[in-house]
């Protein structure tokens, strides 16, 4: 089983990237689970056709020990198993709490033993790498971390901070940085700036995605690109990225 955490600045396209990688893995014959680790609970929305699902934190509050695994996990496109950790309303608590509670409850309900996924993808907000947001790395849930960025300065700054946090955990025997994913915004010197970032954090650019209207069109349908436009060049870009991510996990 490969265990991946995908981090990135809010709004950088991290969840879109994660969902399309999950879809590509699933279509290649893998059993995939995607766990959203963001209080907005929108990581898996395009895998589920836009349908709302209760978060693990909401279910814990409502059902307590009566909560079942099937209530926490919802099948989505291509059979991807979807879960959303959830979190408190803005300004009302620690966002990392939802991640911690979700991870503990999924483990308690033996999610990985029962579903036996070939790949687990944790989609994690990366603006702040606090104790809660670092749970997928710190507790050994993820083995490889991939950071999504564009060539925009704030995205690169966030990516550098995430990479530094991963380096700190690596020294303790936790997850390692698998690489940087360029999600283009067509800003000046974009590829050069992201290549410099990768070199600075002693990593590499594992894949690059075009800035394409097809992505937005798919999201308007609440679908992944692989579902909405399976024969498009953009869908093939996501498939190639998935192949490269998978290869990096074997190194």
TrEMBL record:
The keyword Nucleotide-binding applies. It comes from the Bacteria. InterPro entries: NifH/chlL_CS, NifH/frxC, P-loop_NTPase. One of its GO terms (molecular function) is oxidoreductase activity. CDD domains: NifH. Its cofactor is [4Fe-4S] cluster. SUPFAM superfamilies: P-loop containing nucleoside triphosphate hydrolases. The keyword 4Fe-4S applies. Transmembrane segments: none annotated. Keywords: 4Fe-4S, ATP-binding, Iron, Iron-sulfur, Metal-binding, Nucleotide-binding, Oxidoreductase. Pfam families: Fer4_NifH. Belongs to the NifH/BchL/ChlL family. This is Nitrogenase iron protein. It comes from Cloacibacillus porcorum. The lineage of its organism: Bacteria, Thermotogati, Synergistota, Synergistia, Synergistales.
